[in-house]
Amino acid sequence: MKNKILIGSMQVNNGFSGQYYLPYSIGVLCTYVKKHSNKADNLEFALPIYKREEKKDLVNQLNGVDILLVSLYVWNKNISIEVAKDLKKLNPNLLVVFGGPSVPNDASEFMLEHDYIDVCVHQEGEQTFLDIVNKFPDSGNDIQGIDYADIEGLSYRNKQNIICNTGIRTRIKDFSLIPSPYLDGFFDELIEFVGDSHTWLASWESNRGCPFSCTYCDWGSATNSKVTRIELDRCFEELDWFALHKIEFIFVCDANFGMLQSDLEIAEYVTTLNQVFGYPKVFSVQNTKNKRDRAYGVQKKLADSGLAKAVTIALQSTSKEALVAIKRDNISLDDYFYLQSEFRKDGIPTYTEMIIGLPEETYESFSSGISDIIINGQHNKIQFNNLSILPNAEMGSKEYLEAYKIKTVACPIVNMHGALEEEPLDQIFETQELVISTSSCNLADWKKTRIFASLAEFLYFSKVLQIPLLYVNVELGFSYKQLIELFIENRSKHKIIDEVLNYFESHADSITQGGAEFILSKEWGGVYWPPGEYAYLSLVNEDKLDNLYEASYSILQTLTKNEEEENILADAIKYNSFKISRPKVEQQTIDLSYPIDDFYAEWLYNKIPSKEKSNFEFVLDNVSNYQTFFDWAQKVVWYGHRTGAYLYGDIRMEKDIAGHY
């Protein structure tokens, strides 16, 4: 009889400049088994696999384990199944157990395709994995003879090699039964083994479950239920652990942080830790969809302390038809706009998330929605996300796909602002299914929508033309939809506008043919940039911004009705050009006929300022002189993308010739 049963585990996550997530899901499962298994004294746990490496290296690290536990996500699916396949060849008596969000709820085809997988765990896995381990023979032999029929929540092969499913397991109601992998020391050996070679990030939950059932999300689909709360004292102890271990970034897994009264206490506690220990530095949360007053209090606390750089407002769509189709119509749009307004009053930056390609969304509804969001006060950023299909989301079902005539294309998974990694020698790549056509938005309209989003990102949220666009909207009455479309309509008249739109058209075409959803620039740090940012960087790098401003005046001038409107427009464009960030800027001054800085502050609140023409001199005191173009691009465009920090702030207005200032 073997002395010990060795359990290996794999939860591959992406790295971010030498930073890696501790494999929390694996840690919870293994810690639960260590505490509750009737074989606890006969179990050993190999160091968990937590990052992407070459397949052969991962196989070598796991070779010799008796049970392999794999946590499957869309970003690690292909490397995980290939490693498991090779390990099974090396040891036919290896018990291969797959769980995680990317294991299909109906695993029949998945297990037939991958015949080296013995068991698939569905949804919440602590008790299910415990039951599997308890059935494992001490000898390690004859794993094919194990009968799992009495274990709920899994799929398995019976002795006749037929795939069987044992139904849904009742969710755990008492979280005190689940020990903390942080407090119980599961990660201690891994942290010591890795040493100072990189920095750790942490996933953390203070509750589990989501009462919503958005069709594009596998979160609510898997946990749609009442939320299970975790004891507050335990939450505080884990936060202490993060501070003492100098964990800089915490990703909070709660689906609706701010929904519970205890969330405000947690926000206050983590703020105190940051003040005392300096850690954590970032506390990233998924904002609650309702409970706007509490959500405001929580996010304000985090923002004021610097733990949140910008508040996420996850609208996804403003179309009533689309919100019904994705089962999000019970979430108040008024609450989102209220939060956006309140945070703006407090000077707290927000950014709004919108999804391109939702069922029942049209080009008209999407572009009009962007216009409305800006008018309601979103001047920092809209993050445009391409809709992807997740395996266990309702949207991924055959019935849903057919009902809305959803067409997808497999695209490589790359991270926004992620660095280009060398192509893996094993040639194993991860992909996602991106939506490029629906019954309400065909392929041509999807491209049109994608291009509109990129142009809005470039012109308005990269701040390249925000000031004159605000003027024309607030004072001349043209919607942002009309203004953005005006640039598209006039592309043939202006080479620089045509050049920018060519970026966006090529990008949209590339996605429809299986290309990445962000644009790679090998010369700028080998980083993937959103298309709007890429266009901004390109024009700055090629010294073409002035060409853009000249063309923009020509286009927008057609909307003015008299000389004063033309003059204000000219000053607004001149001031925007003066204020926009560039890598190398010496101290400079400009003369204008209007105090555009004051006008800009009022336009942001949809106010029409009183006009007093004179001669105003503006001085740019701060000098930017970055070492390299990428240094500027990283610090200003990348790091400032969620707060829209692309405009110089240290600009002063000298007295005008009439002595008014």
Structure notes:
This protein is an alpha/beta fold. 39% of the residues lie in helices and 17% in strands. The strands form 8 sheets. Strands 1, 3, 4, 5, 6, 7, 8 and 9 form an 8-stranded mixed beta sheet that branches. Strands 2-10-13-14 form a 4-stranded parallel beta sheet, with no helix packed on it. α2 (55-62) packs across α3, α8 runs parallel beside α9 (261-277) and α9 runs parallel beside α10. The termini are far apart. Residues 654-661 have low confidence and may be disordered.
Structural class: alpha/beta
Q: Overall mean pLDDT score?
A: 91
> How many helical stretches?
23
Q: Please tally the β strands and state the result.
A: 27
Biggest sheet: strands, sense, closure? 8 strands, mixed
Low-confidence stretches: 654-661
Shape, principal axes of CA atoms = elongated
Question: Radius of gyration from the CA trace?
Answer: 27 Å
Portion of residues within helices: 25-40%
Oligomer: single chain
Measured by DSSP, the beta-strand proportion falls in 15-25%
Distance between the termini: 90 Å
List the helices and strands and how they pair.
Layout: E1 5-13, E2 19-21, H1 24-36, E3 43-45, E4 49-51, H2 55-62, E5 67-71, H3 77-90, E6 95-99, H4 108-113, E7 119-121, H5 126-135, E8 154-157, E9 163-165, H6 188-194, E10 199-204, E11 207-208, H7 218-223, E12 228-229, H8 232-244, E13 249-252, H9 261-277, E14 282-284, H10 292-305, E15 311-316, H11 320-325, H12 333-345, E16 350-356, H13 363-375, E17 382-386, E18 388-389, H14 398-403, E19 407-412, E20 431-437, H15 443-461, H16 466-474, H17 480-489, H18 495-512, E21 519-521, E22 527-529, H19 531-541, H20 545-557, H21 563-579, E23 584-585, E24 588-592, H22 596-603, E25 616-620, E26 624-625, H23 629-638, E27 651-654
Parallel strand pairs: 1-3, 1-4, 1-5, 2-10, 5-6, 6-7, 10-13, 13-14, 15-16, 16-17
Antiparallel strand pairs: 7-8, 8-9, 11-12, 18-20, 19-20, 21-22, 23-26, 24-25, 25-27
